[in-house]
Amino acid sequence: MIKNEILSYPEVKSLNGQCKKLVVLLHGLGSDGHDLISLVPFISKELLDCHFISPHGVEEFDNAPYGRQWFSLNDRTPHVIGELVAKNSGLVTKIIQKKQAELNLTNKDTIIIGFSQGTMMGLYLNLVQKEPFACVVGFSGKLIAPLECINKTTPVCVIHGELDDVVDVSSMDEIIEYLQKYNIDHSNYKIPNLMHSIDDRGLQFAVKFINTKAQ
């Protein structure tokens, strides 16, 4: 059972009224769905037939009386994080599937965009899908690899600020190495003079990628 607070989140309908794609925005640690939904006005005019949702993290943030998280980072032991991501990815999948059913869409019509911890969850979620997503974009994240890479079909775009002081830019190189290992179609962009953030350069690169790959 998914709590109602998780199923209630910001969303924006497609500008042209023709909902052909679902874009799922996954926020960073300690934030919530209201954060990334603010990006929609900057990209929706180039993604006219996309319906945007920005779910709140499936857990309350551990280290503040506000905010959400996709999984706890209090214990950063790799196997512990892997288990937490695997467990909570099931809840995220249910959130996405519920909206897909409402819109009469499937994974092939679904685009995942994540930031920081949202990228970690988004990449993991993508790699374990039996039915591939249309494409995935990850900003300023790192890889939490599943025990088995099931989906090798979905194109992946990773974008990272060179000056990131929260998630080091070397994390992007690790993601690329993994994608190359499994011959997964990917694009990447290291953005000069950018810290742990999303800027217009990254958004435009992401939109171009989506319009190229999510046909």
From TrEMBL:
Keywords: Hydrolase. InterPro entries: AB_hydrolase_fold, LYPA1-2/EST-like, PLipase/COase/thioEstase. GO terms for molecular function: hydrolase activity. Pfam families: Abhydrolase_2. Residues 9-212 form the Phospholipase/carboxylesterase/thioesterase domain. It comes from the Bacteria. Belongs to the AB hydrolase superfamily. AB hydrolase 2 family. This is Alpha/beta hydrolase. It comes from Candidatus Tisiphia endosymbiont of Sergentomyia squamirostris.
